Amino acid sequence: MARKMRFFKEQMVKAGFSPSTKSEARGDIDVDDLEVKLGELEAELIEMNANGEKLQRSYNELVEYKLVLQKAGEFFASAQHSAVAQQREMESRQMGEESIETPLLQDQETTIDLSKQVKLGFITGLVPREKSMAFERILFRATRGNVLLKQVPVEDPVTDPVSGEKMEKNVFVVFYSGERAKNKILKICEAFGANRYPFAEDLGKQALMITEVSGRITELKTTIDAGSYHRDNLLRTIGDQFEQWNLKVKKEKSIYHTLNMLSLDVTKKCLVAEGWSPVFATKQVQESLQRAAFDSNSQVGAIFQVLSTRESPPTYFRTNKFTSAFQEIVDAYGVAKYQEANPGVYTIITFPFLFAVMFGDWGHGICLLLATLFFIVREKKLSSQKLGDITEMTFGGRYVIMMMALFSIYTGLIYNEFFSVPFELFGRSAYACRDLTCRDASTVGLIKVRETYPFGVDPAWHGTRSELPFLNSLKMKMSILLGVAQMNLGIILSYFNATFFGSSLNVWFQFIPQMIFLNSLFGYLSLLIIVKWCTGSQADLYHVMIYMFLSPTDELGENQLFPGQKTVQLVLLLLALVSVPWMLLPRPFLLKKQHENQHQGQSYTPLESTDDTLHSEANNDSHGHGHEEFEFSEVFVHQLIHTIEFVLGAVSNTASYLRLWALSSLAHSELSVVFYEKVLLLAWGFNNIIILIVGIIIFIFATVGVLLVMETLSAFLHALRLHWVEFQNKFYEGDGYKFYPFSFALLGDEDD
Question: Which residue stretches belong to region Disordered (predicted)?
């Protein structure tokens, strides 16, 4: 039945119909009755298609035959007219140039012509125009030039009777001599797909044939139109019930597919099914089985029993329309292992926030929010429609985009940028000119005349020569702080994973040394940034961090931010150096010793196992090494790679977070300034309404196309990279598999 439904859908698509989304409810049709009905409809439609194809082929052949009769007839008519004219010309010459020798010569020529005259045969038809040159060349070579080929192009494309495709063709007439040449020409015509048609030399017969063919074409056209009308009515009838029938077929197919997974028990009297079920749905499953047994009047009820297994269960997260898109972002990297910490919870906030750090402009954020609200307000209507690929993807992530827009408005207010224009939304600027001679901030320094601007960047910074250095310094340091904070969150989540799975080795020899190493270097750098901001120190943090490694015992001088800084740096440097072998060496040796202790003296296996034993073995098999063969070299190499990856990754990941600064300051902000100053303000300066309108249009298209589309996609991909690589590699294994429950509700989204 599924094959028949696919056949109906293909036929409707070819005919230009689409299945009705509002099928008429005609009651629950029985599956057996539906199968019989679908079979009858399929047979009827196949018969209609076969008859229609035969009629259409005959129609196309007659159209080609008519073209051959017309074009070849014109050629023969012109040839006969030329022959008659030539004969008359010869007779006129004979009458005007009579001499003593003329009769003798004419008798001799007539005798020679009659002796050499040979009856020529001819073949007419149509050949594809793209093959006409090769067709002529092959004919000439095969017959050694003993043919005469005449071709006439057909103006309009012709539908080929065999392939059914429209193509440009030429009408041809081939004159030949001899049966052998005829056989060669017929084979060449067949090889080139040239359709041959009979043709009479007599002009009267040609006219009768054209009249007869035209009449048959008219009759066939009427018959084909009537058949197409009946076929369209049948397809409309099928389309009205297609969705209802298709859903019914999908349900039956899924039921039988699931039943095929069941197995017979040892007595071969009942079926046994094993599967996964969420713990919270256990009672619901039991009630459903009892209700099904009651409704079916079964004498034996279904038995539901929870089993212990060593297999790793699938992962299932309960989501809604708001959280599902964020969970899909995480699952695209890898599905969480069973009971592993889910980064999707934190991604709901961190992902749109890091996007907004790069996108920060509250004007652009408002535009993004308005576009998203369109999808959210109309989500009920749009969810029932068939959308394009890009539109469907945007609609699915509408709540992600909404959060990105809200956070972009927030960070845009912090950056004080509205399409790159600053506003005094939270009061007046804290800076003002020294006296009346001050005209702009780019020539004369400003002085602080009131309290610090309460929220975000002071608008006085915009347009000054020190704007870019100030904002670059601010955003670069902010990027490091955000990056170190998120990486610390990832390491803390690895601690929760280790404690939940009872792996003390991962706590002592992975979590602790990783926290020490990361915070001894980049945590300390973050502390220096905060201290410098709070104290207003002029210390060079580049110098401090570089010479912390090169000359840890040298005096800091003017770069000292707090008392005892030199001692703190020495201690942190030693801790960072110690944490590397701490991560590398103990864990492989302890795993080896643990493996030896587990297998030492094991000469028998208990015959009976309790549920607790099975559960513990399942955990060991899923999350530990279990009873697999232990290879110390493999474990040590794996630990070495993991250690090197973390040490180098701590540096590269921190540097990777600088993309937050690069995209916000250099990409988005500077592009916004360029479009505002070089397009909008430049057009405004001409004092011409036409130039101003053109400038506004260019500004709108540049803002939408570059900043709201390309920059949004760029910032989205960079935020995705920061979560997948810099954040999730600290704790997330992602080697699980999704839980796909049997549900009729999911059948509508599946493809055939």
Answer: 601-625
Q: How many residues does the chain have?
A: 752
What is the C-alpha to C-alpha distance for residues 506 and 516, in angstroms, rounded to an integer?
14
Examine the pLDDT at 78 and tell me if it is beyond 80.
no
Q: What angle do CA 235, 240, 242 make, to 5 degrees?
A: 80
* C-alpha pair distances (Å), 395 with each of 92, 374, 502: 89, 10, 42
Q: Rounded to an integer, what is the distance from CA 463 to the centroid of its chain?
A: 42
End-to-end alpha carbon distance in the chain: 12
Residues contacting residue 344 through CB under 8 Å, at least 6 positions apart = 317, 323, 326, 327, 329, 330, 331
Give residue-wise pLDDT tens across range 480-494: 999 999 999 999 999
The structure tokens listed for 308 are 């212990």
- For the record, the structure tokens of 231 come out as 């076929």
Structure tokens that stand for 632 in this block? 């110390």
- Which amino acid makes up residue 68? V
Confidence of residue 109 (pLDDT cuts 50, 70, 90): very low
What tokens appear for 455 in the block? Answer: 């929220």
Structure tokens at 241: 């019930």
Separation of alpha carbons 651 and 520, rounded Å:
12
| C-alpha to C-alpha distances, 602 to 133, 229, 596, 599, 606, nearest whole angstrom | 87, 82, 11, 6, 11
Q: What is the pLDDT of residues 23-35, one digit of tens each?
A: 555 556 788 888 8
**Average of per-residue pLDDT across 43-51:** 90
Q: Across residues 251-278, what is the average pLDDT?
A: 85
Q: Is residue 671 within 8 Å of residue 330, measured between CB atoms?
A: no
Continuous H helices in 552-675: 565-584, 586-599, 611-623, 632-656, 659-661, 670-675
pTM reported for the whole predicted model: 0.74
Of 294, 261, 266, 254, nearest to 276 by C-alpha is 261
3-state SS class at 731: coil
Strand partners, 746: none
Cβ count within 10 A of residue 39: 12
The one-character DSSP state at 630 is P
Q: What are phi and psi of 195, to 5 degrees?
A: -85, 125
Predicted confidence (pLDDT) per residue in 426-483, tens digit: 888 887 776 655 555 444 567 777 788 889 898 888 877 888 888 889 999 999 999 9
Q: Which two tokens stand for residue 163?
A: 């392939």
3-state secondary structure of 278: coil
- Following DSSP, what letter does each residue of 429-470 receive, concatenated? -SEEESSTT---TTTS-EEE-SSPPSSSS-GGGTTSTTHHHH
Q: How confident is the model over 204-241, as pLDDT tens digits?
A: 787 888 888 889 999 999 998 898 889 888 888 888 88
Per the CB < 8 A criterion, the answer to whether 19 and 9 are in contact is: yes
Output the average pLDDT for the chain: 85
What's the burial of 192, exposed, middle or buried (CB within 10 Å: 0-12/13-18/19+)? middle
d(CA 649, CA 729): 9
Tokens 């194809």, residue located: 53
Instruction: List Cβ neighbours of 551 (8 Å cut-off, separation of 6 or more).
Output: none
* Cα separations in angstroms, 383 against 372, 398, 496, 661, 745: 14, 12, 38, 38, 14
Position 544 scores a pLDDT of 92
User: Is a pLDDT exceeding 70 seen at residue 338?
Assistant: yes
Neighbours of 365 (CB within 10 A): 25
**H or E stretch covering 271:** strand 271-272
- Token pair for 719: 């935020």
d(Cα 732, Cα 333) in Å, to the nearest integer?
A: 10
